[in-house]
Write a structure and sequence with these properties.
By secondary structure, this protein is an alpha/beta fold. The protein has helices at about 10-25, 40-45, 55-65, 80-85, 145-155, 180-190, 210-220, 240-250, 280-285, 295-300, 300-310, 335-340, and strands at about 5, 25-30, 50, 70-75, 90-100, 160-165, 170, 195, 205-210, 225-230, 255-260. Helices cover about 30% and strands about 15% of the residues.
């Protein structure tokens, strides 16, 4: 039986990949730090879990053991992580390192996490310029995108077949940051209005975890050293995402257009890029990757998971707390009501 090891395998991408590989007959082991946050479907499917920190060299060597047919690194955040892995890849047939589209810079040096948003003239190809690598650890202050570039460079130069996958905004069940929560929470709270900046015309390419998993399986079949964008076949706008969630959950609300220049957070969503940020996925398709489905089809699993988890006793440990710094400003009903009353 082919063996797969997924480092950082209890989040959205790890779970989707583990379940897909298991369904395909693979022997699958996942690692993560917190045993209390191992999604139950993994054990139910026969996926093994090994607790440990990706940064602990002994844990990493033990987890890789005598090698694997596929190693997926979903917790490779900086050059130190990559350097720790490369000596262990001699007996690994194919490695998929999960990087990020946050590595890309536009012509003015702007990127996903810059103060000013990037403006790309069209779909981003893998040859697009990236941030300069920063070989420091995240803890030592390396910015996320620059540290990912440094990790990519180490792995691409190591001589083993490593596919660097660059997803965009990941969605999927068991995500640690399920962005669609900003709309699902609203539905559960019975809000009959949704506010959208610029009418929700911004877009930032979604990447369904199940589609990333399909690409991982492709690079397992076709080992090689390459960089591949990983995103859904379509790129819905923020407004279309709101409509998709409402329709999936059988909810109706009134859409209110918020002026793009309004200085508050009212109407902001995680997908407000205008011009839209989209990834060119032709290289993945040319390799034989077949997406599982478009955004509306693949996001259903996350939506059903969010609703079921919110209703389940003790489910809150999987969900963002009300004071979560990312979600709280996007779910600030008091500010929205004050805006509506202006
Ligand atoms: N989510 C996105 O929108 C997005 C976009 C682009 C790229 N990515 C990349 O995709 C990868 C995985 O993303 P995801 O969406 O599946 O993440 P996720 O839902 O946040 O899950 C992260 C996983 O990594 C584990 N993990 C984190 N730090 C670890 C460590 N030091 N040692 C061992 N395990 C660790 C977590 O478990 P524990 O916390 O229990 O250890 C969890 O299993 C990351 O490399 C991320 O940079 C994500």
């Amino acid at each position: 039986m082919a063996r797969a090891l997924i480092l950082g395998g209890t989040g959205a991408i790890g779970v989707a990949t583990a379940l897909r590989l298991r369904a395909g007959g693979w022997d699958v082991t996942v690692t993560s730090r917190d045993p209390a946050l191992v999604p139950p479907p993994l054990a139910a499917a026969g996926v093994r879990h090994v607790a440990g920190d990706r940064g602990d060299a002994r844990h990493l060597a033990d987890a890789v053991g005598a090698g694997a047919d596929l190693l997926v690194d979903a917790a490779c955040y900086d050059a130190s992580h990559a350097r720790a892995l490369t000596p262990l890849l001699a007996d690994v047939t194919s490695t998929a390192m999960i990087s990020s589209k946050a590595v890309y810079v536009d012509g003015a040096g702007r990127h996903s996490n810059s103060a000013e948003p990037p403006r790309f003239p069209g779909p981003i190809e893998e040859t697009q310029a990236t941030l300069r690598p920063d070989a420091r650890t995240l803890e030592a202050g390396a910015p996320y995108g620059s540290a990912k570039v440094a990790a990519e460079e180490v792995l691409l130069a190591c001589g083993a077949p490593v596919s660097v996958l660059r997803p965009s905004k990941v969605h999927g069940a068991w995500s640690r940051r399920p962005r669609e929560w900003i709309f699902v929470r609203r539905v559960l709270d019975g809000r009959d209005v949704v506010l959208l900046r610029g009418g929700g015309r911004g877009a930032d390419h979604p990447s369904g975890a199940v589609n990333v998993a399909a690409l991982v399986e492709t690079v397992a079949r076709v080992p090689g050293t390459r960089i591949l964008n990983s995103a859904d076949p379509d790129c819905p706008s923020a407004g279309q995402i709101a409509q998709t969630v409402a329709a999936a959950l059988g909810h109706r609300w009134r859409e209110v257009d918020v002026d793009v220049d309004d200085e508050s957070d009212v109407g902001r969503t995680p997908w407000d890029r205008d011009p839209p940020v989209t990834l060119d996925t032709r290289a993945a398709l040319a390799l034989g990757y077949e997406p599982v489905g478009d955004y509306a089809a693949t996001v259903r699993e996350e939506l059903d998971w969010l609703v079921a988890t919110a209703r389940q006793p003790g489910g809150s440990r999987w969900l963002p707390p009300t004071d979560d710094p990312f979600f709280a400003p996007l779910l600030d009903y008091a500010s929205e009501d004050a805006y509506l009353a202006r």
